[in-house]
Amino acid sequence: MSSAEIILRKANPEDVNIIWGILLQAIERRRKDGSAQWQNGYPNLGTVENDITKGVGYVLMVNGEIAVYSALILNDEPAYDTIDGAWLSTGDFVVVHRVAVDEKFAGQGLAKKLFDHIEDFARSQNISSIKVDTNFDNTAMLKILESKEYSYCGEVYLSGGIRKAFEKIVM
């Protein structure tokens, strides 16, 4: 991957079907891993369309091909207002939701690369904090967050369940 051109860009309406295909793979991967996350009809095609309409859908491109999808939302996650624990900061933040890697790019460290790009994105917006949550049984994401030095802050209630909440200060 070292010689690959990797860029983060806003998703556009033409990307919807590719993104939805990647999310379907991720939903199935969660199911096969025995995770309850994403097994209740969320996210769905409407979620992706809504992300793109709102301008919060992003894709990580590898050599011109969509490899990873994520929603990056500024300061807007009502569920984060109530945390059983404490966030590291109270200022502006980027929320990371719906991270999904295309199967053909799996195992190449691209989710970690996505988080590097999200940190750059946050800094470019003069935002010092990134917040993310995941299911207790999403071991892949928990490992990524640990490797990227996100701090466990407590639990939030989201999408009908308790989620582990993490934050990283990036500037």
Automatic annotation (TrEMBL):
Pfam families: Acetyltransf_1. GO terms for molecular function: acyltransferase activity, transferring groups other than amino-acyl groups. InterPro entries: Acyl_CoA_acyltransferase, GNAT_dom. Keywords: Transferase. Residues 6-171 form the N-acetyltransferase domain. Coiled coil: none annotated. This is GNAT superfamily N-acetyltransferase. It comes from Chryseobacterium defluvii.
